[in-house]
Specification:
By secondary structure, this protein is α/β, with parallel strands linked by helices. It is globular.
Amino acid sequence: MRRGERRTPIGIAAGVVAATLLLSGCSMHVDAGSAAADEAESALSRIDGVASVRANGTNNLPFAGTASATVVTDDHLSDTALHDLTDAVGRWVHGRHSTTASIEADGYRFPVRSTAVLNARQLAVVDGLRHDDRWIGGDVQSPTAPGTVQPTPSIVLTVGKPADLVAGWDAVRQAGADSGWDEVEVSAEAWNAAPADVVDRYHPDFTIAETGDTADATRGDPTAEVEAFRQVQAAYPVTAAEVRPGRVHLHVRDLADVPAATAVVTRTAPDAVAVVDGGIVTKDDSGDPGERPGPSAFTEVDRLAAVATRDGVTAITEKPAWLSVTATGTDTALATAAALVAASPATSMGTIEVASSAAALEDRGDDGLLIRGSPARFVDAVRVAAQLPDFQPARAALFATNASVTVTVSGVDEVPALVAALKPVLPDGTRLQVGLRGEDSAASAGQLTLHGGTMTVDEPRSPAAEDETRSRLGPTVRDAWNG
């Protein structure tokens, strides 16, 4: 295995040009992949206009392997210089067994095809886009042969500012129409703050695409949906958007603007699924194409989210059967959880969780209080959690099929207080993990289960560390509980 070195740092500023090569085959060198990477780095660095080369090799078997190389050229190449570079890379690749290449020019990436004619058609698309300062890159892919649609031809345009997304969509649609490719898929994307490096550009904040929200991802015309987005963006600050035929999902900056923004979308694109969230509330409508939830699936979780929206709550994430609330501090978390209990969550909910911090929600075990449960058992989780402020990090997770509570103590001297707090409220059948503050909870010997009012120590999954406090912790909790 060989990892190449980038000789010149690459910024995402316009003018970056790179070529990515994949070389595969046999060699007289036992580490064929590494040797191919060295060869690519040496040869491609001599191409006119190249600023740096980095190469990677993988040695699959003795005398066989693959290699990839990225050629970064000088900024702001002219169209002629870029065409010459592409031809030079193509000539170098040609004849090498199982060799492919990709070019990146001013943030635009495209594969090098087998003939100069095919490459010229891709370059015509790239050249038509890369000189507009509003766009910062994209991906262009043509078929591998004339008259075919394999792979599916596509153009993705990366827009520098969300305010220019609709203009970018118009530009990429025109580029697709001018490409001459059959069934070309086009899309435009943007970030609130575009990542500095091309390799970090994934999960854009804004997307407009023509693949629909159907099981077969059929291409369609999102004109009405784009117009709905444009009108909402003109009236309200929008911080995220997914726009495609049959679906518009927007996030507006202010939660209070959600009803009005929703009305704009449903009026302008009446046949589209409209999912709008805002402020601290985010709706997760992910799913397989054709199976993603619509607004009616969020009715109950929307109701509970409204209950949880209060001072001290910093984030609320909704799924159709899942509500996740991040609060600031234990008191706010407990008060919010109690309010959710009083709201009588419907049995259609699968999970309700409230955390006293983002770290607690991520269950890193090093901060705060996490309260989780199903609707029927969330009240029990809240009742237990109310006894845990002095034993954090702590977690109470009670569901129909399993129940667990995790607490933290400084030493065995705190066990009597822990038992006094939990004994009146811990439901039978609950597993209890007692960890030492500042220690890895997974290595704790304090794994216990409550059966019929009797606490038993579970067999450790792995030998505990040789520590007297650890070895005494589980039995001390058991004896205090059963005494």
